[in-house]
Every structure is written in C-alpha cells, then in structure tokens.
Amino acid sequence: MPTLVVKHEGRMASSINVRGHKIIADVPPEMGGNDRGPTPVDLLAGSLGTCIAFSMSRAGVRSPASPTKGSRWTWITFTTERRIVCR
Predict the structure, then answer these.
(1) Which of 2, 17, 70, 75 could be disulfide-bonded to 49 (CB atoms 3.0-4.6 Å)?
(2) Which residues of 14-41 are buried (b: 16+ CB within 10 A; e: fewer)?
(3) Are residues 15 and 44 in the same domain?
(4) Number of structural domains, the chain?
(5) Does the structure show a pLDDT above 90 at 56?
(6) pLDDT of residue 48
C-alpha cells in the first residue's frame, strides 16, 4: 500500500500526496477558505463514487454482455443544506 501524506496548507486547506499525485482540499470563502480545490466532503463523495464505478467496470470487463458497458452514473451530491441526494 502506498504512503498517503496529508499536510495542512494554511487556513482551511490541506494537501493529499500519494504516488506522486497531489490534491488540494479547501472550502469556499464563505466557509473560511480560498476555494483552491474540492471540499473534503466533495472528495469523500468522489472517492465513494469512483470505488463503485471501478467495481462495476471490473464486473463489466468480466462479462461482455454486461449492462454496465457504456453506462454513465451520477452518484452522490452533497448540498450546502447538508442533504444527500442520490440520482
């Protein structure tokens, strides 16, 4: 498992470094940040969505007749009202 390093970058921002990739997490100015990147909640939702998409894609690779081929999914949207909307 590669090492993942999280570093505070000032104000509300943090960086994530893993396998030579760097991602900045921040929040919008109205939440005290500089909007330099997705919020931590955006990254969490994206991580969950990409894990599900990866798993479904692997299943599709194993079965040529899989209904996942060519599909597009919208996963989870977190709104500012702290509601979760699944589409």
Answers:
(1) 75
(2) bbbeeeeeeeebbbeeeeebeebbbbee
(3) no
(4) 2
(5) no
(6) 83
Closest CA to 76 of 66, 87, 68: 87
Give, for 45, the enclosing helix (H) or strand (E).
helix 40-62
pLDDT value for 51: 84
Average pLDDT, the chain: 79
Looking at residue 67, its amino acid is P
53 and 69 share one domain: yes
**pLDDT at residue 67, as a whole number:** 55
> Are 46 and 34 in the same domain?
no
Compute the distance between CA of residue 76 and CA of residue 48 in angstroms, rounded to an integer: 9
- 19 with 58, same domain: the answer is no
Residues 32 and 43 in one domain: no
Q: In what order do the strands lie in the sheet with 21-25?
A: 4-10, 13-18, 21-25
Domain that includes residue 85, residue range = 39-87
